Amino acid sequence: MKYLIVGLGNIGDGYSDTRHNIGFTVLDAMAEASNAAFKDKRYGFIASVKYKGRNFILLKPSTFMNLSGNAVRYWMKKENIPVENILIIVDDIALPLGSFRMRPKGSDGGHNGLAHITAVLETDEYARIRIGIGNNFRKGTQVNYVLGRWDEEEKKILSEKIPVVIDMIRSFGTSGVELAMTAFNKKGKLPATDD
Predict the structure, then answer these.
(1) Quick check: pTM over 0.85?
(2) Residues with catalytic function
């Protein structure tokens, strides 16, 4: 069984380690955990990770965020992977930093990468994991925040959460989207605060 796991982000050193590139960050960690290396291929960087009889094709599109659908469609067809075996990992400013949740389908929520994938695939019925990057920015500074680099405190929070997201991806492949959601979405919620 093959699965296409797509981490959204933008290529180039200027975007490295930024909030918008959390999809790349997760896939880099997943590849590293399996001693897999990315290779520069058509429309993206590709690595292959085996886990419990499943083959996870990890894709970091090189098309830039707003054209991500081109890379997804190409690798779906090349690897003959059905839409139900696709999982997109994306940043979300509507979720608190360190939270995450999986959904089997849904709207793009204003995210240009998801919007392009939906337009190219002509469906929004593909699984996605939204990872919260927080929204600690002043009005009018959203772009700078999203394209900004993580601070040390944020990196510490992420270092604890990314391994859980990787387990969630593996569960998607071994158990399916519904069971993965049941097992992991509650782990992605942050405890309520008294503010």
Answers:
(1) yes
(2) 20
